[in-house]
Each structure stands twice: as C-alpha cells, then as structure tokens.
C-alpha cells in the first residue's frame, strides 16, 4: 500500500540563502509548517564558507535561516523548534550569545548535540521547524 504525500507541499527556495549542496531543499512547507534544512555558514552569493570563528559562522547560519523563513512569509517568531549541531560543545556559550539576538520572548524548543564532523568542516549546523 502506498501513501500519498500531504496535498499542500511546497519546496521553498531563495537566492538569499545558500543553494542546497545535496539532494535536499532549503525548506519544505507542508500545510502551515516549514521544515528548514540544516544550514551551515555558507555565503549565499559565493557558496563558500564564511571566514571567521564560531560567532561569525553562527551569525551567517541564522541569516541564512532568516532568508528561508522570509521566502515562506515567516520570521523567527514562527520558529517552534531548533536543533543545533556543534563540532565542539565548548562553543555552546558563544552560539547561545548569537542565537539570543535572533530569538526573544517565547523562545522555541531546542536541543544541542555535539557531533564528530559537519559538512565543509563547519563548526555549527542549525535546522529548525516553523509554524504559521
């Protein structure tokens, strides 16, 4: 028995966020829920990793996520869940400082995981779910 995907399923794509570097999309809108694919600190115009430290990587990642949210007519206030992937949990405090600039008030649910390796030798990757 095969099942049908939800009828309201839209791939979200914007030139203001990096193009996908694999077989996935920047975001997938299913009904009123947006699933934003994991973002690393790629510059949308060049496709290259930003130069700098964890703070600069996190800022670029959240700017990329913001672009995907805007492409779906949403913003950070719509985000209900975030997953942080850190190559080194010692970077947690710095990531939190940058993160707090984007999320205030009713902050989303979140988890943070230390991982062995991330694409393009990134220090941080972030994905999220937003709801209208």
Shape: globular
> What's the total count of β strands?
6
Low-confidence stretches: none
Mean pLDDT: 95
Overall number of structural domains = 1
- CATH superfamily, please? RutC-like
Give the terminus-to-terminus CA distance: 32 Å
- The CATH topology is 60s Ribosomal Protein L30, Chain: A
Spatial strand order of the main sheet: 1-2-3-6-4-5
Q: Sheet bearing the most strands, described?
A: 6 strands, mixed
Q: Tally the helices.
A: 2
CATH architecture verdict: 2-Layer Sandwich
N-to-C series of helices and strands: EEEHEHEE
Radius of gyration computed on alpha carbons: 15 Å
State the secondary-structure class.
Answer: alpha+beta
**Helix residue percentage:** 10-25%
Proportion in β-strands: 25-35%
CATH class: Alpha Beta
